[in-house]
């Protein structure tokens, strides 16, 4: 499982791109390629949990321009091994 962490700024491009990005997230979740996603309470960033290998996550990110939108920064991608949960 991979954790993708994002940081946000107040750039208007990010807010304009967010609805389309959330549609992509909904589709990925329906397909079983996204476990959970959501912003931090202060909207400074977000965390996304993907049950994918790194090459597939790279393809997901390449297909969603949100990750290249001004105001969105990929802080990191880390492998996670949950002890409990999905």
Task: Compile the SSE list and pairings.
Layout: E1 2-8, H1 12-30, E2 36-39, E3 45-50, H2 54-63, E4 72-79
Antiparallel strand pairs: 1-3, 1-4, 2-3
Structural key phrases:
globular; 86 residues; 4 strands; alpha+beta; Alpha-Beta Plaits
Helix content: 25-40%
Q: Could you give the order of the helices and strands?
A: EHEEHE
Q: What's the N-to-C terminus distance? A: 10 Å
Q: For this structure, what is the CATH class?
A: Alpha Beta
Strand content: 25-35%
Number of beta-strand segments: 4
Folded structure, characterized:
The protein has 86 residues and is of the alpha+beta class. It has a single domain, classed as 2-Layer Sandwich (Alpha-Beta Plaits). The chain is 34% helix and 29% strand. The protein is built from two helices and four strands, in the order βαββαβ. It has a four-stranded antiparallel β-sheet with strand order 2-3-1-4, with helices on one face. A hairpin with a 5-residue loop joins strand 2 (36-39) and strand 3 (45-50). It is globular, with a radius of gyration of 12 Å. The N and C termini lie close together (10 Å). The mean pLDDT is 95.
């Amino acid at each position: 499982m991979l954790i993708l962490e994002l940081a946000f700024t107040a750039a208007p491009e990010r807010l304009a791109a967010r609805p389309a990005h959330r549609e992509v997230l909904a589709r990925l979740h329906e397909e079983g390629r996204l476990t959970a996603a959501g912003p931090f309470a202060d909207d400074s960033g977000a965390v996304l949990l993907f049950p994918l290998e790194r090459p597939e996550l790279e393809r997901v990110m390449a297909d969603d321009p949100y990750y290249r939108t001004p105001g969105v920064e990929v802080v990191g991608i880390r492998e996670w091994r949950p002890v409990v949960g999905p």
